[in-house]
Design a protein that fits this description.
AraC_XylS_family_regulators, AraC family transcriptional regulator, elongated, transcription, Homeodomain-like_sf, DNA-binding transcription factor activity, eight-stranded antiparallel β-sheet, Jelly Rolls, alpha+beta, 46% helix
């Protein structure tokens, strides 16, 4: 059984993994994904493939709508073969839809929203879409001509390397860092950052990753952690106040981020700084 849903993603970045495959297609607005450490945007006409147990981050950039299909590993279906599912989800990746697939996904989304309780209809529409995508990626040669650039992680991220080039001019990282520092206490979207560089969100993401080695999300998180560490070691602010000033959604989100990046909790960092610099 395939669970199908049309939904919106929150603007606060979240992370999880699940025991089923997931296909996501953008319908309206822009969303940002980071799957197994590789980030890209998913807006109208673009999608991503998330294999089971693959850790990923996701967030919405303002108003957005996406089509989500969850495919269980142990669920058999007479409408789609295991070989097609394996071909689709053998590794994570991002893809673009050709005009026919764009039309199909918008019709399917409208029908699912019009008849939200008709699970049989939703599942048949989801299977039809996956079969159409599966037909287009039976061989590498079909990928670019039929689906558009289906970008796996062993290729370029978010661009078609055969006909796209990144600009030679370097990004103004001083300008970007200054902007982020001024807005750390707020949600910062890729759209806002792209505006600082006068680029589209998709182009900005590709250029930023190529020039810095980080995704925009990773970069902002890095600066949030730096701000939190500075406040922990130089002030007596509460963890709630520090989380708010550094732009974390909660005290627990701050603790998780610090533990993941530094191996220490906020309390341990604060205690270490006090012991390293005893008062005279």
């Amino acid at each position: 059984m395939h669970a199908v849903e049309v939904m919106s993603l929150p603007q606060q970045s979240k992370r999880h993994q699940h025991s089923f495959h997931q296909l996501v297609v953008g319908l309206e607005g822009t969303t940002e994904f980071e799957i197994a450490g590789k980030g890209s945007w998913v807006d109208s006409g673009k999608g991503c493939l998330v294999p089971s147990d693959c850790s990923h981050y996701f967030c919405g950039c303002g108003e957005n709508r996406i089509w989500v299909v969850n495919i269980p590993l142990n669920g058999s279906s007479s409408h789609i073969s295991p070989e097609i599912v394996e071909r689709l989800f053998n590794q994570p990746g991002y893809f673009e839809l050709d005009p026919e697939l764009r039309q199909l996904i918008h019709v399917a989304a409208r029908e699912v929203q019009r008849f939200p309780h008709n699970t049989a209809l939703a599942q048949h529409l989801a299977v039809s879409f996956m079969l159409a995508v599966g037909e287009r990626i039976q061989s590498i040669a079909n990928v670019k001509t039929c689906v558009g650039p289906l970008v796996k992680y062993n290729g370029e991220l978010g661009i078609n390397a055969s006909n796209s080039k990144l600009p030679n001019a370097p990004l103004d990282f001083c300008r970007l860092e200054s902007y982020v520092e001024r807005h750390l206490h707020q949600k910062i979207s890729i759209i806002q950052l792209a505006r600082q560089a006068c680029l589209s969100p998709s182009h900005f993401h590709a250029v930023f990753k190529a020039q810095s080695g980080l995704t925009p999300h990773q970069y902002v998180t890095q600066l949030r952690i730096q701000r939190a560490k500075a406040l922990l070691t130089t002030t007596s602010l509460s963890l709630i106040d520090i989380a708010q000033q550094a732009g974390f959604s909660s005290q627990s989100a701050l603790t998780h981020a610090l533990k993941q990046k530094t191996g220490q909790t906020p309390g341990q960092l604060r205690k270490w700084s006090h012991s390293a610099c005893p008062s005279m």
